[in-house]
Amino acid sequence: MLIRIIIAAVLLTALQFIPADGALRLILYLIPYLVIGYDILLKAFKGIKNHQVFDESFLMAVATIGAIALALHERSGDYTEAVAVMLFYQIGELFQSYAVGKSRRNISDLMDIRPDYANVEQDGKLEQVDPDEVEIGTVIVVQPGEKVPIDGVVLEGASSLNTSALTGESLPRDVKEGDEIISGCINMSGLLKIRTTKEFGESTVSKILDLVENASSRKSKSEEFIAKFARIYTPAVCYAALALAVLPPLVRILGLGLPGDWDNWIGRALTFLVISCPCALVISIPLSFFAGIGGASAAGVLVKGSNYMETLSKTKIVVFDKTGTLTQGVFEVNGIHHSELEDEKLLEYAALAESASSHPISKSIQKAYGKEIDRSRVTDIQEISGGGVTAKVDGNTVAAGNDKLMKQLGIEYISCHSVGTIVHMAINGSYAGHIVISDVVKPHSKEAVQALKTAGIRKTVMLTGDRREVAEKVAADLGVDEVCSELLPADKVEKVEELIQKKSEKEKLAFVGDGINDAPVLGRADIGIAMGAMGSDAAIEAADVVLMDDDPLKIAKAIKISRKCLRIVYQNIVFAIGIKLLFLALGAFGIANMWMAIFADVGVMIIAVLNAIRALFVKNL
Amino acid sequence: MKKTYKIDVDCANCANKMEEAAKKTPGVKDATVNFMALKMIVEFEEGQEPKSVMQQVLKNCKKVEDDCEIFL
């Protein structure tokens, strides 16, 4: 293609210096014209056969052949215009396919986390196999410098992992025997033996790649608008061209009694055809979204579709879940008060009673107990939603839970003054003391809330199932505007619905959670953001935007990325449509000729494409 | 049922035209063409045989854009 462009350009330049007349001149000019445009003519012909009149090749063919015919008719011998228009059109096409191909590669390089092979040990030798062929439970070996190909558990060895391709976070993460390990990380220091727990197709790395690749299939409103516009635009311009060629001369002849001046008006009409292709517009919008999604994923923010990118940019209210989002969700037992038994004993009962629960609070009690839990000592475990648990331990009825549970059971309890989650204990119906558990606020939470405010978020709300004192203290520390505490999971959905009702249609509400048992809320909000999702399928499934690590600062970053992307989209829409309309007007008045029209057309496209690629750069947001 | 096909097409507007053409093909419930990823996602109607429907989709796409390809 490039060669054809060069040949045609050289020929065209040379022809300017060759004095030739009449038929010879036409034939000489037809050589570069055909060199550069034969495929367009061919396509135009096929288009007619298939009744595709508004095909861009057809329009270009009509415009250029029309220009040649006009030159013949006028005997001006000015064929340069037709050849040049075709030439620039082809340069534009070439640039476009280059730019699109380049950004496709750029973005796939950014997401270059696909492992090519897995090492399987066979007869003492390492063999490289296709990760697709590795079955669950196989032991694979990952050497320093290699990517972890499949999710699994470390059997042997310790190392630090570079997770930057997944999370955008440069701090290495340490793993040792027994730790879970996620595919896509790069093993930096030691040799690791891993027992795979998933197939390659189900592994984190495959899921993420799949998600990012398919994200641009969910089209945004802007894209739909452009597709509709393009459908109307081309026919409209063509009919306008036809009208321009026929009506003014007729009016001149019939109405004003002047000569028709057909050549002039047909020339203007042909200029219209040159601008009739909506390509700049149609290419730059999906390209902007694609680049934006690519750039975001390089920063550890996965946006699941162009439509979500659009919604995210309109976010004005951010609702947080507290635990695991603003706080670390790692609870620690901080004290045991008013215990009727030995502290150890009380903790033991609590740990046993809570042994079936995976709630972070239960986990922390089990951790504080520190010994192996013998589940055969526990029977009749009942979880009381939003309250706690009751169970029989060694034949004693044990109740562990909050104030509500104690009230429900009619047991008098002693309130605690420390801030934290209080687990009251009752054994055989009498109060036995309480355990104080508190959660730690994440180091960046306060900054994150500040960053959101600076980014123009109107309101921040924190929802939590925790007690009011705890919730209010955390909220005050972090600078969150509104708190709703002591909520059951179902209440959170209601609360979010209430907030959605209260706001205006244009403002969007984002809910940020950790993806663990807040899937319904993630689904109900205008946009659901799950964080710390590395390896959590449920979160990746339920959310619209996934933050790969659990740094709350990324929320503001995600919003800023989406705003930049949308800004570029709007710039391109306004710019491309504006320039086209301007040149249509100039063309109609005979100010712009075909030369200027093709320059405008190709120029707009190049600028729009370059602008679109800007969405890729998100580092400094 | 949804299926994804790799496609080849070199202009964005043509991709939109292919999407239109695919949507209008009998047996296709919905279709999306992702120009950037060069993929076509087709949702078939109940009880339709994807293979034969896709032949028709390819034919219709060829009609609107001669240069396109769907890898079936």
Descriptive terms for the model:
heterodimer; A: 621 residues; alpha+beta; seven-stranded mixed beta sheet; six-stranded antiparallel beta sheet; 21 helices; 22 strands; 52% helix; 19% strand; B: 72 residues; four-stranded antiparallel beta sheet; 2 helices
What is the gist of this entry?
The complex is a heterodimer of chains A (621) and B (72). With 621 residues, chain A is α+β, with helices and mostly antiparallel strands. Chain A has 21 helices and 22 strands.
Tell me what the structure shows.
The complex is a heterodimer of chains A (about 625) and B (about 70). Chain A has about 625 residues and is α+β, with helices and mostly antiparallel strands. Chain A is about 50% helix and about 20% strand. In chain A, helix 10 (about 305-315) packs across helix 20 and helix 15 (about 445-455) runs parallel beside helix 20 (about 555-590). Chain A is elongated and about 115 Å long. The mean pLDDT of chain A is about 85. Chain B is α+β, with helices and mostly antiparallel strands and about 70 residues long. Chain B is built from 2 helices and 4 strands. Chain B has helices spanning about 10-25, 50-65; strands at about 1-10, 30-35, 40-45, 70. In chain B, strands 2-3-1-4 form a 4-stranded antiparallel β-sheet, with helices on one face.
pLDDT < 50 runs, ≥5 residues of chain B: none
Cα distance, first to last residue of chain A? 39 Å
Cα radius of gyration of chain B in angstroms: 11 Å
Task: Give the chain pair forming the largest contact, with residue counts.
Answer: A-B, 30 and 20 residues
Structural class of chain A: alpha+beta
Distance between the termini of chain B: 16 Å
Strand content of chain B: 25-35%
Q: What proportion of the residues of chain A is helical, as a percent range? A: 40-55%
Which series of helices and strands of chain B comes N to C? EHEEHE
Give the helix/strand layout.
The complex is a heterodimer of chains A (621) and B (72).
Chain A: H1 2-15, H2 22-49, H3 56-74, H4 80-110, E1 118-122, E2 125-129, E3 139-142, E4 152-156, E5 159-162, H5 164-167, E6 173-175, E7 180-181, E8 186-187, E9 192-196, H6 204-215, H7 221-256, H8 262-275, H9 279-298, E10 301-303, H10 306-313, E11 315-321, H11 322-326, E12 327-337, H12 343-353, H13 360-369, E13 378-384, E14 388-393, E15 396-401, H14 403-409, E16 421-427, E17 430-441, H15 445-454, E18 459-463, H16 468-478, E19 482-484, H17 489-502, E20 508-513, H18 519-524, E21 527-531, H19 537-542, E22 545-547, H20 553-588, H21 594-613
Parallel strand pairs in A: 11-18, 11-20, 18-19, 20-21, 21-22
Antiparallel strand pairs in A: 1-2, 1-3, 3-9, 4-7, 4-9, 5-6, 5-8, 10-22, 12-17, 13-14, 14-15, 15-16, 16-17
Helix pairs in contact in A: 1-2, 1-4, 2-3, 2-4, 3-4, 3-8, 4-9, 4-21, 7-8, 7-9, 8-20, 8-21, 9-20, 9-21, 10-20, 12-13, 15-20, 20-21
Chain B: E1 2-8, H1 12-24, E2 28-34, E3 39-44, H2 50-64, E4 69-71
Antiparallel strand pairs in B: 1-3, 1-4, 2-3
Helix pairs in contact in B: 1-2
